[in-house]
Design brief:
With 300 residues, the protein is an alpha/beta fold. The chain contains 10 helices and 9 strands.
Length: 300
């Protein structure tokens, strides 16, 4: 079996690959590229809920002319005793070329990539990684600042359980950004600190320093009990009207979604001039078109 290229995390992309994917994303935003994936079959299987990632992968595949099959977990024969590896082998035998998978278990997409005769794309595995979300966040920030090198990007909230944060930190480090992680100790252990990555507890002190603030949702589905009260979290880390007054006029605010109003952000953030959530969501489609085209066809 030929081992084909997969995207499990950003480490699967070289610097040149990253640049290429961003260039293609910009092209695909300007003009629809036509049926670059004609004759290619994509299967999307999501073991966790998704609005943005699921829909944008579907739209990306359809816009590139792929054949698309959406398999919900209950459509698979896992309850009959089939392993997920044997499922992947069967899909490969049917000529499926691309498998897009989301799963609550860290490392699940790697298990598929080890046996699947095609390309696996990680659409989010547990707390581990969410590479296409990190790509679209980086693309959004780069468009805003004409690159992120030297920019101070604050990532705020439940870093420890956030696959988005883990992939984004890795990507921003490679791009030369200064990263400030902000949150309470249970969501942000000290050992996240490293070269160009600072750990801060005081959100108010960080607000005037940041070019961009990336808010995170508390990933309640990934732990047993909330390690601090909601009221304490809101007091120290919710972005609200008072905290908005402390950020720079030209700063932007991102959120990967889904966002929880009243927890990490107040409604007024959605009306703030620097709120870039809609752009992020919009970029999700051309980013995923560029990733699909790159994995299937390589750089050209
Ligand atoms: N950002 C993100 O992964 O959103 P969904 O869970 O809706 O796909």
């Amino acid at each position: 079996m030929q081992i084909r290229r997969s995207l499990i995390d950003l480490t699967d992309l070289s610097g040149d690959d990253l640049r290429y994917v961003f260039e293609r994303t910009a092209e695909f935003e300007r003009t629809q590229p036509g049926k670059l994936l004609e004759g290619i079959t994509c299967v999307n299987t999501f073991f966790e809920e998704s609005t943005r990632t699921f829909t944008s992968f579907n739209l990306a595949e359809l816009r590139l002319g792929a054949d698309v099959v959406n398999l919900s977990p209950r459509d698979l024969s896992l309850a009959k005793g089939e392993t997920i590896e044997d499922t992947a082998i069967s899909l490969g035998a049917m000529g499926v070329d691309v498998l897009v998978v989301r799963h609550p278990e860290d490392g699940f997409p790697q298990r598929l990539a080890a046996v699947f005769d095609g390309h696996v794309i990680n659409a989010g595995d547990g707390s581990h990684a969410h590479p296409t979300q990190a790509l679209l966040d980086m693309y959004t920030l780069s468009e805003e600042f004409d690159g992120v090198h030297g920019r101070t990007i604050a990532i705020v909230g439940d870093v420890a359980h956030s696959r988005v944060a883990h992939s984004l930190i890795a990507g921003l480090k490679r791009a030369g950004a200064e990263i400030v992680l902000v949150g309470p100790a249970p969501f942000l252990p000290e050992d996240y600190a490293e070269r160009n990555v600072r750990v801060e507890r005081n959100f108010d002190a960080v607000l005037p320093q940041a070019d961009a603030i990336v808010l995170l949702r508390i990933q309640r589905e990934r732990f047993e009990s909330m390690p601090l009260t909601d009221a304490d979290y809101v007091r120290d880390y919710r972005l609200d009207a008072d905290r908005l007054k402390k950020i720079r006029d030209d700063a932007v605010i991102l959120h990967p979604g889904p966002y929880n109003r009243g927890m990490e952000l107040d409604d007024c953030v959605l009306d703030f001039a620097g709120w870039r959530y809609a752009k992020q969501v919009r970029h999700g489609i051309p980013i995923r078109m560029a990733v699909l085209d790159f994995l299937v066809h390589g750089r050209r």
